[in-house]
Structure formats: structure tokens, C-alpha cells
Amino acid sequence: MGGGSVGVTASDQKPKKKAQPARCAICSKPVDPKYTPFCSKRCADVDLHRWLNNSYSIAGAPADDDAAADGSEQD
Ligand SMILES: [Zn+2]
Fold this sequence. Notes:
Layout: H1 8-11, H2 41-60, H3 65-72
């Protein structure tokens, strides 16, 4: 007795995946480790700009700047 932890070894087996070369999220070229997950600084910049544009449009959507300022200065 005392083999309670024997079953754990079964779940330790994982399907071995071959390390596939990751692809650039922008242009699908093989990524450069320096710029992972992108193939180059250019693609990293492209993604960064996309991301920034997204967050800007989200932040800029509710134009409540005036309302907020108005609410804090009620006389
Ligand atoms: Zn790329």
C-alpha cells in the first residue's frame, strides 16, 4: 500500500510537440528572437502602432472631459 501518488505520473505525459518556428503576427515571416513575436523591429512597430491606435480610439470615444470638469466645479 501507500502508492497513492502513482497515478500522478500518468498525467505527466504530454504529447511532444516539435518546436515550430513562430511566425510574425504581422507578416507571417519567421520571427526573430530579438523581436519576438515579430520578425523585425518594423513589424513590432506596426503592431505597437496598431495597439496604440486602438487604445487611443477607446480612450477618445467617450468625450466626457468637459462634463467631468464641469461636475467637479459646480457652484
Ligand atoms: Zn514581420
